[in-house]
Amino acid sequence: MSREPEPMNGASIVHRHWPLDGPHSPDTVAAAGEAVAELNRYLARATRSGREVLPYAHDGYRLAGNLRAAATSQAQVHRQLGTWARSLTDDPGLGDDEHPGDREPAVEKARTAAVTFDLADRAMFEIDRLLDSAQAPLGHLYHEMGWGLDR
Fold first, then answer.
1. Counting C-beta atoms within 10 Å of the first and last residue's C-beta, which end of the chain has fewer, N or C?
2. Which residues make beta-bridge pairs with 150?
3. What is the mean pLDDT of residues 47-51?
4. Does any domain span residue 67?
5. Domain of 73?
6. Secondary structure string (H, E, C) spanning the chain
7. What is the pLDDT of residues 70-127, one digit of tens each?
8. How far is Cα 101 from Cα 52, in angstroms, rounded to an integer?
């Protein structure tokens, strides 16, 4: 008698490698960013198949909800990176390889990064709103299955 494989739990996989409470380091944060990029590549490839991969409306509803949650977290990351970039301007040792010995261009580049992260934060808020607008109608859809069940 064969057993069906247990369903994947993405959160458990992530928490095994990146516990929310850390440890946090430059390497673990960079690796998490790399994993996010790879998961987005996976989704980009997987969703090319359309109905083969997402055969029912609720499948798209679930994915849209997870993408909304990701957008909300991504906005927080961008907001925090903006704060981090602003903190660089207070570092007396901050330099710019294009202008060695002149601190002002380095400070200006850190400010530019901070403002750009703020813009990314706002853009993710808009993405979250759009994903909500896409997800909401999917929650009302179902499929007649012909044997008394719907999905």
1. N
2. 144
3. 93
4. yes
5. 56-136
6. CCCCCCCCCHHHHHHHHCCCCCCCCHHHHHHHHHHHHHHHHHHHHHHHHHHHCCCCHHHHHHHHHHHHHHHHHHHHHHHHHHHHHHHHCCCCCCCCCCCCCCHHHHHHHHHHHHHHHHHHHHHHHHHHHHHHHHHHHHCCCCCECCCCCEC
7. 999 999 999 999 999 999 999 999 999 999 999 999 999 999 999 999 999 999 999 9
8. 58
Residue 3: the pLDDT is 67
Whether the Cβ atoms of residue 68 and residue 54 lie closer than 8 Å to each other: no
Averaged pLDDT of the chain: 93
Residue 151 inside a domain? The answer is no
In a domain, 106, yes or no: yes
The answer to whether 151 touches 145, Cβ cutoff 8 Å, is yes
Tell me the mean pLDDT in the region 57-80: 97
Query: What's the structural domain count of the chain?
Result: 1
Identify the pLDDT of residue 150. 58
Can you tell me the mean pLDDT for 10-25?
94
- Tell me how far apart the terminal alpha carbons of the chain are, to the nearest angstrom: 27
Q: How many CA atoms, within 13 angstroms, populate the side-chain half-sphere of residue 134?
A: 17
Q: How many CB atoms lie within 10 A of CB 85?
A: 19
